[in-house]
Design goal:
- There is one protein chain.
- This protein is an all-beta fold.
- 0% of the residues lie in helices and 48% in strands.
- It is built from no helices and eleven strands.
- The radius of gyration is 13 Å and the shape is globular.
Length: 124
């Protein structure tokens, strides 16, 4: 009964901030790679960030580096994606996903469970 539930999305103006949450259940998130992906309308799903069991962090999209921060709260079994200085091009459905093991990458088939997604819309 592995589940991941995203929350925290919404409509914000350019330059604003959001913190997305990924609440995990049925497994211990700290033992796996947990990735954040996003998919904009008409575009492919892309890997945004990942955190692994050693608390190492990756940011795969150049435009989010310095603006997005991935983190984990082990006590609450929750992974976060804090997003600052948001831009219209950040608009997408954001998904969190559980890796099959501890490897962090951007390959969707290496992630075996997915949340339902949360909509992030950046617009004036």
């Amino acid at each position: 009964q592995v589940q991941l539930v995203e929350s925290g999305g919404g409509l914000v103006q350019p330059g604003g901030s959001l913190r997305l949450s990924c609440a995990a259940s049925g497994f211990t998130a700290a033992n796996y790679a947990i990735g954040w992906f996003r998919q904009a309308p008409g575009q492919e799903r892309e890997g945004v960030s990942c955190i692994n069991r050693l608390n190492l962090k990756w940011y795969y999209v150049d435009s989010v580096k310095g603006r997005f921060t991935i983190s984990r709260d082990n006590a609450n079994n929750t992974v976060y994606l804090s997003m600052n200085s948001l831009k219209p091009e950040d608009t997408a459905v954001y998904y969190c996903a559980k890796g099959s093991s501890w490897r962090c990458d951007t390959v969707p088939v290496n992630f075996d469970s997915w949340g339902q997604g949360t909509q992030v819309t950046i617009a004036s």
